Fold this protein.
Amino acid sequence: MKIPVGIIGFGRMGRYYLKEFQKNVAYEVAYICDLDAESREVAQKMAPEAQVISDDQLIFNDKRVQVVALTTTANARLAQIQKAVAAGKHIIAEKPIADTIDHEWEAVKLVEEAPILSTANMYLQNAWYHHLMREVVESAELGELAIMRICHMTPGLAPGEGHESEGPSFHDCGMHYVNLARWYARCEYKTWHAQGVCMWDWKDPWWIQVHGTFESGVVYDITQGFVYGQLAKNQTHNSYVELIGTKGFCRMTHDFKTAVVEIHGVTETQRIERPYGGKNIDRLITEMADSIEKGVRNPLMPSFRDSAMASGYAWKMIEDARKNALPSIGTHEELEEIWEHRRNLKDGYGLLPRLNKNV
Ligand SMILES: NC(=O)c1ccc[n+]([C@@H]2O[C@H](COP(=O)([O-])OP(=O)(O)OC[C@H]3O[C@@H](n4cnc5c(N)ncnc54)[C@H](O)[C@@H]3O)[C@@H](O)[C@H]2O)c1
């Protein structure tokens, strides 16, 4: 018996989910819901097998539907989580799991007290390269883990383009890296000091670098910004994680197609290159199907609590950046140029389909 699923929110992420559900034999896409008529038109073409609707209540009322994938922006999420819990549906939610810290913790409480399965797409927790590097850390090849260095800079979502309910880029995207450092450290953040910069006369920082310590004493730095050559003729990015121990180190980088892990341990030197794996939605939905089949939560599934913790720390780091001078560099005219440029890009970083007719 296939698992009937309803996808709610058919923008950039909703379309990734559809493709993965269609590939996975465990699932059947029963519904796709979006408020936007154009998105519904695309949905009907991509999924003739699904009922395409604008009222999510039809999905919650349908007893056959076992799983909902919540892929709208965060402002709609808590109400949908409430309805899913009331209807006894399992939940795969995009991050952040809600639009404010209070709403996020309300969502955590709701799912933790309900007899349903839930997961949030903190996709780096499902990445092969991070699983491999965590094994290396635990193998003693590096000695004792001391320093984590994380960087993710792309010419991605520009300020004001959408995702307002997800916060500045250090929250919207950066919370993945805040989560990742915590996942490697296996303990909580102890200190943080953040420096940010507001770009193009925008009110919020669009680049932040934060450094500090974990309770274990491990130190970290995280750099995140969607500021990397937005108007460059040829676009590229810089994304890496380095884990430095008392004896050796390992590091990874990727070009969004291939990921490369390099291990410089005390007995081993290795370079491992494999397909990047994108947002790892295939793994997430497989873990959910496996959990439903066995009736036991697959421990690899990132939890709502993971997402709420990471989101909370990311907000604290942004608040710290606001206290540390926070210069403003660039003009609103440059931002308008960036918006126009991104509307016309055929292949760019983080383009939202509703705003970009080329995707
Ligand atoms: N896990 C990740 O790596 C990752 C990456 C990108 C985005 N995201 C998250 O995924 C979510 C969606 O992002 P996106 O880039 O796809 O945005 P998007 O704007 O492209 O898509 C959102 C869609 O939801 C629809 N929508 C909004 N409110 C709705 C409602 N109440 N009912 C039905 N449809 C509704 C919109 O019409 C739109 O089509 C965001 O929360 C974002 O932070 C996560």
In short: Residues 8-14, 33-36, 39, 56, 71-74, 76, 94-95, 121, 123, 162-163, 166, 172, 279, 352-354 surround nicotinamide-adenine-dinucleotide (CB under 6 Å).
